[in-house]
Amino acid sequence: MRALELTQQFSASISESKPVLTLRQVRIPVWAQAALIFAGALITMMTLIFASPYVVSLDSFFHTRIASEFWRQGTLNLDFPWLPYTIANAANFVDNHLLFHLYLAPFSYYFGDNGVRVAVAVVAAANVLMTWFLLCGIGVRYPLLWTIAFFGLSLPFLFRMLMIRVNGASVLCLLITLHLLLQKRYRWLIPMGFIFVWLYFGFIIIIAFAALYTFSLYIAEKRFEWRPIAYVCIGVALGIFINPYFPKNLDWIADLLITRVDRETPLGAEWRAPTTEALLYNSPGALFALFFAFLRPTFGGGKRDTVENTLMFTALMTLGMVFTAVRFLEYFPVFALLFCAAAWGRVPIDSLFNPRFERLNELARRFAWVPLLVIVGVFTVRNVPFTYSLVARNDDGHRLFGAADWLEVNAPAGSMIFSTGFNDFAYLFYHNPQHIYAIGLDPTYLSFESPELWDLYYSIIQGNEGEDSGRLIFERFHADFVISDKPRDGAFHEFAVSDPYLDLVYQDAREVVWRVIDVEAEAAAENEPTGEELFSGGSGQAAEGAEQSQSDAEARGEGVPSNADNVDSNGDQSE
C-alpha cells in the first residue's frame, strides 16, 4: 500500500514539473523539414515521370542523346556533325543548354532513359523545395500548405516539369535569384548570372528579374539600388566570354534572337500563343492565385512592399510571356503562386476584419489554414491524377521506332536522311546518331542558314514540286534516304509512289522509308556493256566498228591480232 502511494506521488511530481508535450509544441529542425519536403516532392515527381515507360515529349529524346555524347566525346566543345545544312552545322554549333547537358551526361550515358528521368525528377523536386525556402525567407505563414499548391497550379506546368528539358532547371535558377534579391545577397547574383548563361541562352529573363526588383525597391522605398542589375549583368557577361564556344556563341545568340522574331517560318506548336479558353481550362490554379492576390488590398493590410511588388511584376511578366508562346507556361504559375502567398500569407489576420468582431478575428487566427487547405486540395487533387494519366498515355517511344530500326541496320553510316517533318530529327537522332540529317531541332535553323534550301524543302513536303520531288531531294539535298509520315504527308506521298528517284524500301502502319536513286547513274550503268560483251566484241554497233577497223587495216596490209592473241601475248609478258 505504501509503495502504491509513493508511485502515485512520483507520477504527480513528474506531471507538475514536466507538462505533457502537445503536437503544437513539437519543433522539427529546419533541415529535417527541408529533407521531408524534398523527399515527398521527389517521390511525387518520380511517380509521375515513371507513369510511362518512355520519356515525356519528343525533345526529351534529343536531350537524352546529346547528353550522352558529351560523356562519350569527353569535351565541353561538342563535335556536332548531324545537321550540316543548318546554323547548327559542325563549324558553327553552340550548345545553348550546355550546363543542363553536362548535368544529364553521366545519367544518360550509364543509365539511359531511366537515368535522365531520375535526374529531371530531382530538379523538379528541388523547385518545390526552393519554393518553400523562398516562402519561409519572406515570412509567409503556413509555407508548407502554399508549397503543396505547386502541384495544383497548372497541368501544362507540371507536365513540362517532367520533360527532359531545361525548363525545370531554368525555373530553379530564377527562384534562387529571387531569394537572393529579396534577402539582399546581391554579390551572389554574379555566379547566378554566369550559371544561367551556361544553362540557357534566355538570360534576358534573369536580367529582367533584377530590373523588376530594382524598380519595386524604388517604388516602395524611393531609393535606387544599382547593384542587382550590375551584378547580374557582370555574371551574364562572364558566362558569355568564359565559355568553350566563345566567340561562336555571340553569333548564335544573335541568330536565335532573329529567328524568334521571324514568324514567317512555321514554328512548332509550343511557339503559338494559347487561347484564353485553353489557359482557363489548363491553368485555373495559377490564374486563381493571380486574381486572388490582386484582391488582397481590398481587405486592408496597407500598401504593397518591395517583396510583394517584385513578385507581382515577375508574375505579370511571365504571364505576358505565356501570351506570346505556350512554351513559357513553365514560368508563370510558380510566380503567380509566390505573389499570392506574399500578398495573403504575411498580412496580419486581424486586419482582414473589423476590430469590433473579436470572435470572428479569433476564429480567423485559429483556422485561417482551413480555407487555404481546401483550395489547395481542390486544385491539387484535380491536377496530379490528370497529369499522371496524361503521362501514362504517352507513347512517344513508339514514334518512328520501326523506320529508325530499319535505317540503323540498312543505311550506311554517314547517310544523309531527308525527313519530311523537322520534329522527326529528335527521334531519329536518338536511335541513329551514325547518320546525318537535312533538317532538325527547329525549322528556322535551316531557313536562317540557307533560305533557298528551306523554301525548297517546304515546297517539297507540301507536294508543290510534284514529280520533281525525288530529283530535287537527290540533287539539292544529296540525300540517301527519305523518311515520311503517311497520315501527315499525304501530298508528298501522292507523287512519291511513282517518283523514279524514290524506291520504297520500308513501310509500316505509319512511316515510310524511300531509298533515293541516282536515275542517270543507274541508266548509264544499264547501258554499259557487260564483261562478256566486251570480250566478244561488245554490242552490235561496237562489233561493226571493230570489223570496219579490221578491214581497213587489211587493206593497208597491216596485221590485226585477234582477242585471243592479245590475251596470250599479255599472258606471255606477265610471265
What do these coordinates show?
With 575 residues, this protein is mainly alpha-helical. The chain contains 27 helices and five strands. Strand 1 (416-419), helix 19 (424-431) and strand 2 (436-437) form a beta-alpha-beta unit. Helix 2 (30-49) packs across helix 4 (98-137), helix 9 (204-221) packs antiparallel against helix 10 (227-241) and helix 13 packs parallel to helix 15 (332-345). The radius of gyration is 34 Å and the shape is elongated.
Descriptive terms for the model:
27 helices, elongated, 575 residues, disordered C terminus, 5-stranded mixed sheet
Could you give a quick summary of the protein structure above?
By secondary structure, this protein is mainly α. The protein is built from 27 helices and five strands.
Q: Could you outline the blueprint of secondary structure elements for this entry?
A:
Elements: H1 2-17, H2 30-49, H3 59-73, H4 98-137, H5 143-148, H6 155-161, H7 167-182, H8 189-199, H9 204-221, H10 227-241, H11 248-261, H12 276-282, H13 284-295, H14 306-322, H15 332-345, H16 358-367, H17 369-392, H18 401-410, E1 416-419, H19 424-431, E2 436-437, H20 443-449, H21 451-461, H22 469-477, E3 481-485, H23 490-496, E4 502-507, E5 511-516, H24 519-527, H25 531-536, H26 540-555, H27 563-574
Parallel strand pairs: 1-2, 1-3
Antiparallel strand pairs: 3-5, 4-5
